[in-house]
Amino acid sequence: MKKTKYTKTEKSWMFYDWANSAYSIIITTAVFPLFYKSVATGAGVSEVNSTAYLGYTVAIATFILAMIGPILGTIADYRGLKKKFFFAFFLIGSLSTVSLAFVPDGSWLPLLIIYTITAIGFHGANIFYDAFLVDVTPEEKMDDVSSRGFGLGYIGSTIPFIISIAIILLAGKGVIPISTAVASKLAFVITGIWWFAFTIPMLKNVVQIHAIEREPRILAGSFRRLGDTFKEIKKYRTVFIFLLAYFFYIDGVGTIISMSTAYGSDLGIKPTDLLIVLFVTQVVAAPFAILYGKLAQRFSVKSMLYVGIFVYIIVCIYAFFLSTTLDFWILAMLVATSQGGIQALSRSYFAQLVPKEKSNEFFGFYNIFGKFASVMGPLLLGVTAQLTGSSAYGVFSLIILFIIGGILLRMVPKPVSETV
Q1: Per-residue b/e over 336-356, b at no fewer than 16 CB within 10 Å?
Q2: Which of these, 184, 250, 222, lies nearest to 38 by C-alpha position?
Q3: Which sequence ranges are marked TM in the entry (predicted)?
Q4: Which of 60, 62, 143, 244 falls 20 to 30 Å from 373 in CA-CA distance?
Q5: What is the rounded CA–CA span in Å between residue 390 and residue 370?
Q6: Residue 401 bridge partners (DSSP)
């Protein structure tokens, strides 16, 4: 089989996944949640409430971004603005990630506030990063390039993750003369620096191609164009049906990613075991993300999205009965098979459906649907955990979201690239 060749622009775009995925694993999934749980419980917050508060924080951050996403995307559709918005959010995210290390000991609330800022920076930059997909590659390569980006992200994130785990484990065993809390803070600094350094190729080599020419009054024009899109919603019916399906199934995906370590901690799984499991998950997820892209070329994107949704339904069921470290290992490997693939193909599928010159505006909607879903999922988990006294019921309740998402996805026609 002929090896796919990628342009410098495609490689630079994909490399941003390498850069920012360190945030996903260290801040969103692994080190920060465990560090926060330690700080919160040390300050007298119960295990269940500390998990709920983290869920509420994720909900607040994503709600803020969901509110501003579409209008920011609409403004960024004007020529020359997409990269400026991308840079602003990337800078906010990377610098605030480093600042997590300087929160005073025992201050769990300020920790959550700064975490909110890092999340806004991370997800805000991703609006414009995802929208750049239409500028860097043709439609027939979008599934492959998007999946390859996620694969690189999983591979790249393992490097700072290994370094961070090593520092934390060595500190815990007294091999190096620092506490595990200080070691965790070093991990935050490493993440911010890694994110900043490896974003440089994206900043240097990726440019906005599809755009709308600037008007004298950009802000007023942006609101007008956003209003026109709502008025012409029937014209974009396919796009919005997909977004509705995406709203439901990505809710469960994002909630499981952001809350997995807190959930494992509630079940009594040791922090070191959680970190090792998450590292292996990253390694396993990399080839599977790429595999999803390859299989989508053979069986269609929708078919592979259905596979991912089905796997996550199994994850929700299995999580309800999870009780041992071995169970958590099995659960993590199930997630690893589909986590990157379902996100990568959702991104490329959407990019093939939207008008290229309005990609930022529509990826703003992509963000608002995804982020509103991320508000609902953590809130559902948090409220259910507090009402029942068990996080397991919250995870299990996510199953309905995957089922609804799968049903709605059946109503979305294939993109043009799959019908020619």
Answers
A1: bbbbbbbbbbbbbbbbbbbeb
A2: 184
A3: 21-39, 51-73, 85-103, 109-129, 150-172, 178-198, 239-262, 274-292, 304-322, 328-350, 362-381, 393-412
A4: 143
A5: 26
A6: none
User: Which residue in the block uniquely carries the two structure tokens 């924080």?
Assistant: 57
d(CA 292, CA 296): 6
Query: Using DSSP, how many helices (H) and how many strands (E) does the chain show?
Result: 18, 0
What 8-state DSSP symbol labels residue 212? Answer: B
Q: Is the dihedral of CA 292, 249, 33, 391 positive or negative?
A: negative
Q: H or E segment at 138? A: none
Segment 133-140 shows an average pLDDT of: 85
Q: CB pairs under 8 A, 24+ apart, for 410-415?
A: 411/241, 411/245, 412/238, 412/241, 412/242, 412/245, 412/302, 413/238, 414/300, 414/301, 414/302, 415/139, 415/301, 415/349, 415/352, 415/353
pTM over 0.85: no
Give percent above pLDDT 70 in the chain: 82
Buried b or exposed e, range 55-83, using 16+ CB within 10 angstroms: bbbbbbbbbbbbeebbbbbbbbbbeebbb
Is the confidence at residue 112, as pLDDT, over 50? yes
Backbone φ and ψ of 270, nearest 5°: -65, 145
Chain mean position to CA 105: 28
CB 58 within 8 A of CB 342: no
The pLDDT value recorded for residue 199 is 94
The answer, yes or no, to whether residue 301 has pLDDT greater than 70, is yes
pLDDT band at 155 (very low <50, low <70, confident <90, very high): confident
Q: Confidence class of residue 202 from pLDDT cuts 50, 70 and 90?
A: very high
- pLDDT band, residue 393 (cuts 50/70/90): confident
In the three-class reduction of DSSP (H, G, I as helix; E, B as strand; rest coil), residue 27 is classed as helix
Strand partners of residue 78: 212
CATH homologous superfamily of 10-208+216-413: MFS general substrate transporter like domains (1.20.1250.20)
Tens of pLDDT along 19-29?
998 898 888 87
Question: % helix / strand / coil in the chain, to the nearest 5?
Answer: 85, 0, 15
DSSP 178: S
Work out the angle between the directed axes of helices 108-131 and 359-388 (0-180°, nearest 10). Answer: 150
Tell me how many degrees the CA angle 196-200-204 measures, rounded to the nearest 5.
Answer: 155
